[in-house]
Amino acid sequence: MDRQNKHLILIMPLSNNSNIHPSTFLLLGIPGLEAIHTWLSVPFCLVYLCALLGNFSILFIIKTDSILHEPMYIFLCMLSVADLIISTTTMPKILSIFWFRDRKIYFEACLLQVFLIHSLCSMASGFILAMAFDRYVAICSPLRHSIILRQRVVQNMGLAIVFRGALLFSPQPFMLRWLPYCRTKIIPHTYCEFMALIKLACAETRISRIYSLTAAFLTGGLDFLLIICSYIVILYTVFHLPSKAAQLKTLGTCGSHVCVILVAYTPAFFSFLTHRFGHKVAPHIHILVANIYLLIPPMVNPMIYGIRTRRIRERFLRVLTSLHF
How many whole angstroms separate alpha carbon 282 and alpha carbon 274? Predict the structure, then answer.
């Protein structure tokens, strides 16, 4: 009898261990709105197609037009690449949930999605900061713009932003892999997100949460503060210009970038508020706000620059005309 008990004791950890890391998770989509997932797929699909068309158009136009080979538009290309990868990392799976109820996602694929989403969002934030720096130099030190933002400097800034995002968020998949998951395999979300997985863990997660918040502040939070500081200096410089016409013309060069900042950080701000203070907010509102934060900027950014930048607008219309004929 004692031998049987010892044998059972040896087997129990092994059987429990098989549940620590489930082979798959189940993504619910948007909880509470399952009945209209098919209808929701229509705007989601249109958003994805517009993001693909817009960002590929931006990349093609800037690459083929030497006049647009300026730091601002090179940073815009980097932002477009990040936006394309963010959209493609999440949207195909979201559409498969809506269309085919294919909720299953492998554990490793889920961890990869977490890393790509968070690291690429931090890269997108870094590229927006780099564009703010370009505007700062162009307005506050116009004669030194071409000297400060040489091609080599622009490339190094881009590499530094990519390295920062990859370095700060690469520990997240390992943190999630080390955690035991013995509560449920169901993720009430449309994609794998760090905090959503943390909630499923049945172990102490305080260190992981603190690291996640610190990484988020060192990327998006710090970037936003530096962008605000750069625009304070820009406004100070602009309002000291001699004529109102010069002030308006100079501010006009920042219009597209300001719109990109609002599109990127406003949904992020509301997403943070709903998670931090919106305890009585319905779950589907949380998920919809998170999707807006992740998926709308990749669609809207090319539209902003396509509409407000005459050169890009003309090239885009010329390409459409040639395709039509």
Answer: 10
| d(C-alpha 263, C-alpha 80), whole Å | 14
Tell me 218's DSSP state: I
For residue 12, give Cα distances in angstroms to 8, 18, 178, 284: 6, 10, 20, 39
The model's pLDDT over 97-149, given as tens digits with 9 standing for 90+, comes to 999 999 999 999 999 999 999 999 999 999 999 999 999 999 999 999 999 99
Write the CB contacts of 87 (distance below 8 Å, at least 6 apart in sequence). 48, 51, 52, 295, 298
CA angle 149, 151, 155 (to 5 degrees): 95
Of 322, 312, 289, which Cα lies nearest the Cα of 64? Answer: 312
> Cα(55)–Cα(298) distance, rounded to whole angstroms?
8
Letter string b/e over residues 214-242, b meaning 16 or more CB atoms within 10 A of that residue's CB: ebbeebbbebbeebeebbeebeebbeeee
The answer to which of 15-19, 207-211, 240-244 has the lowest mean pLDDT is 15-19
Mean of the per-residue pLDDT values of the chain: 89
pTM of the model: 0.90
Structure tokens at 323: 């395709």
Instruction: Give every CB contact of residue 59 below 8 A, 6+ residues apart in sequence.
Output: 77, 80, 81
Sequence-ordered list of residues with C-beta below 8 angstroms from that of 11, at least 6 positions apart, any chain: none
Residue 76 and residue 156 in contact, taking contact as beta carbons nearer than 8 Å: no
29: left (phi over 0), alpha (psi -120 to 50) or beta: left
**Nearest-angstrom CA–CA distance, 75 and 257:** 11
